[in-house]
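#onboarding

Welcome to the new folks! Below is a worked example of what a typical request in this channel looks like: someone posts a single protein sequence, and someone else replies with the predicted structure as tokens. Don't worry about understanding the tokens yet, we'll cover that in week two.

Example request:
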Amino acid sequence: MGLESQLRRRSESVIGILNGVDYGEWSPESDPLIPFPYTAKNLSGKESNKQALLEEMGLDYQFDRPLAGIVTRLTYQKGIDLMQEALPGLLSERDFSLVVLGNGEDEYEQFFHWLEGEFPDRVGFFCGFNNQLAHRIEAGSDLFLMPSRYEPCGLNQMYSLRYGTVPVVRATGGLTDSVKHFEHRSGEGTGVVFHDYDVNGLRWAVNTGLDLYSDKSAWRRLVDNGMAQDYSWDEQGKIYLERFRRLVAG
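Example response:
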């Protein structure tokens, strides 16, 4: 909004601090809003959560069919226009399910209503907000889609990492800072990251995530990497404290 030149001029004085997550509320081993708790060492409850979520949404459950989740405001910022272009073809070409929670612009709400009508056994849309359902989508999904046009920080990708749900994100803002693209060779990375804001980028990212899901060894490494991340307020708070101490000392 016109401030970028001033911020760049003072870049040596500018830092960014990511959001923190309250793991007392968002942790699969203790979350009271999900039916089956689980841990990084024992992920069996995650599949049970997926089955329960699909049954709740009136969708078919098939073991080993991947589930993608979306919890978002349905606005221009969140990349819904890319989903409009990419998701119908992807759902026709690939065998996966999709659960969406959100509301916002009428055009986008109508799109997801249409999409669940086109794929009634595999797509479910809850129009509105429901905190309990948000937790169950994080716990039951395998992939979490965040193709944002811009994202100052974001929280759902951090929730997803904690729940062993692989974030599929565009490389922008806080999504870049908190999700690293998974590399087969090194086994490092916590999600799927695409760069160009276009439909081909999102298609590539979703296909990459689905392909990784079918590679069980790589998928388990990817899930473990994500669940090992720490975006708690304990960690983020240390950055605030360090900066305040530096200011006081100066």
